[in-house]
Design a protein that fits this description.
Number of strands: 4
Shape: globular
Number of domains: 1
Strand order of the largest sheet: 1-2-3-4
Number of helices: 9
Strand content: 5-15%
Largest sheet: 4 strands, parallel
Order of helices and strands: HEHEHHEHHEHHH
Structural class: alpha/beta
Helix content: 40-55%
Length: 175
């Protein structure tokens, strides 16, 4: 599709708010995305913790995230336009080591963004969430309610404030 966009000289801006899988970003695909008009790059990255990564299927490892960012920067993407999502309020947040992950992401000179965990009944994570809340109550499936109730508003807000602070310390590059 992107080759066709370039071939036809279609002027378009692409944005990826639902996250790209960093594992699949190669040098070639990064160049193609930048040339075709990608403007924002949101990458899924749940945790730096290798224990967490193994437990959740190793969707994206720390090395894969760093490599994808290198490919995007090498292709001409602005680091200000690259963001890595991390899960906030997962019932196994201790294993996730969220603060370490947030610092890792910002250490790559890109923004981190916390995505609120939403338990889905009938899944392993949903079943595990039952240790914290009554999963028969539909409100507990809500991403805004679950984390605040399971971990407390104070802890959730502390983590959100830390992410904002880390993001403010990232050097800004001219567009």
């Amino acid at each position: 599709m992107l080759n066709e966009v370039l071939k036809r000289n279609i002027k378009v801006n692409f944005h990826t708010p639902n996250a790209l899988n960093a594992r699949f970003i190669t040098k070639e695909s990064a160049k193609l995305m930048v040339r075709a008009g990608f403007k924002t790059f949101y990458l899924g990255f749940e945790s730096k913790s290798s224990t967490w990564q193994r437990k959740t299927g190793s969707k994206v490892t720390s090395d894969q995230l760093a490599r994808a960012i290198g490919h995007l920067l090498g292709a001409g993407a602005n680091p200000n336009d690259i963001t890595a999502y991390q899960i906030l309020g997962h019932p196994q947040m201790e294993t996730q080591r969220l603060e370490d992950s947030m610092e890792f992401v910002c250490g790559l000179d890109i923004r981190g963004m916390l995505a609120d965990f939403s338990p889905i009944p009938g899944t392993l994570d949903g079943d595990y969430s039952g240790k914290y809340v009554d999963m028969t109550e539909p409100l507990m499936h809500n991403k805004s309610a679950f984390g605040a109730i399971a971990f407390g508003f104070k802890e959730i807000n502390r983590l959100k404030n830390l992410q904002r602070k880390l993001n403010r310390n990232i050097p800004q590059k001219p567009a």
